[in-house]
Design brief:
343 residues; alpha/beta; Rhomboid-like fold; 2 domains; 14 helices
Length: 343
């Protein structure tokens, strides 16, 4: 059910329950009518009010036939017709409202009473200031506020980088296990790391392929963990927001694998850490910068390239850093980021 159907249903339910309206179904279709239901209520001054749902294509010549249908149903010769108008064409709607205010004509919607809603149903554009219309406006306003509140809440939920937090949580959890088994919160025991799944070429060659993934969730010390998690916290939300959670997860795990594979083929060292996957996120960030360079500017592209270059340079300048793992993650993240780009 779309928003238009939802708001019509909401208005009908609340108007029939709380405002004393009854329903009549139109047997014929008329140009511009968006719902076959007409709401009818007997007013205290002897008049009868009818409410129809239409769009800006509705013409007042149809009023005669709708009033005739209501009169046959309710014997209401003195009828006020209120039109709830759902607008799609902003320019035409503005012209109709201007005509209603300044140049009344039998060919526009000035006859009777009216309430104009915009195409997204999040704003009342214009309405006749009468007690009957204002009752309906109150119902519509309540609906708009409820829907707007839910949309805002949904947007806030979507903006939360939940997968980034989950990945950080897994890394921290694995480090706590490592620390307990090592008996040291600051530094990890190498034998514990191997036991938990570090990248050890000889063991991978024997079929322990899971180490290509598990090594990316292990860290050699609290500083190693802190630096990587800070980098993940800084980069992850951007990639998650642009690509979406599933593609972001794919980029992350493909980068883990390509990082471990290049390290496996080119380095005999035992390897651990999330930095290969983080370099993969840097590669995906480079894809974003290149694809959206007109929006983000060339300086953003230059900054990303500089960050990648500086981090690679630091890696090659420091001992005990798996630079092949970094390069493998960067290559994997860049390639998969480009392949799954859909913007």
């Amino acid at each position: 059910m779309d928003t238009k159907e939802n708001i019509i249903k909401f208005i009908i339910e609340n108007a029939t329950r709380g405002l004393g309206y009854t329903l009549l179904e139109l047997n014929n279709s008329y140009n511009g009518i968006v719902s076959p239901w007409v709401m009818i209520r007997q007013e205290g001054d002897g008049r009868c009010r009818g409410v129809i749902f239409c769009n800006e294509e509705y013409e007042n010549k149809n009023d005669y036939y709708i009033k005739l249908a209501i009169n046959n149903y309710n014997n209401a010769p003195n009828l006020i017709l209120t039109k709830i108008v759902f607008t799609d064409n902003k320019e035409k709607t503005n012209m109709i409202i201007e005509n209603i205010i300044h140049e009344p004509s039998p060919n526009n919607l000035h006859m009777g009473e009216y309430i104009f809603l915009d195409a997204d149903f999040n704003k009342i554009l214009y309405y006749t200031s009468t007690s009957g219309s204002e009752e309906l406006v109150n119902i519509i306003s309540y609906f708009i506020n409820e829907v707007a509140g839910k949309k805002e809440s949904t947007v806030r939920k979507k903006d939360i980088p939940s997968l980034t937090y989950v990945i950080i949580g897994i890394n921290v959890f694995m480090y706590l296990i490592t620390a307990v088994l090592s008996g040291n919160i600051m530094e990890s025991n190498i034998n514990v790391l191997i036991f938990l799944g570090a990248k050890v070429n000889q063991l991978i060659a024997k079929g322990e392929y899971y180490r290509l993934i598990t090594c990316a969730f292990l860290h050699g010390g609290i500083v190693h963990l802190g630096l990587n998690m800070y980098s993940l916290y800084a980069l992850g939300p951007l990639i998650e927001k642009v690509y979406g959670k599933w593609k972001y997860g794919l980029i992350y795990f493909i980068s883990c694998i390509t990082s471990s594979l290049l390290s496996y083929f080119l380095s005999d060292s035992i390897s651990i850490g999330a930095s290969g996957a983080i370099f993969g996120l840097l590669g995906a960030c480079l894809v974003i910068a290149l694809k959206l360079k007109d929006q983000v500017g060339k300086s953003f592209v230059s900054n990303i390239i500089s960050v990648i270059f500086v981090n690679l340079l630091i890696g090659f300048s420091v001992a005990n850093v798996d630079n092949f793992g970094h390069l493998g993650g960067l290559i994997g993240g860049t390639i998969i980021g480009a392949l799954i780009w859909e913007k």
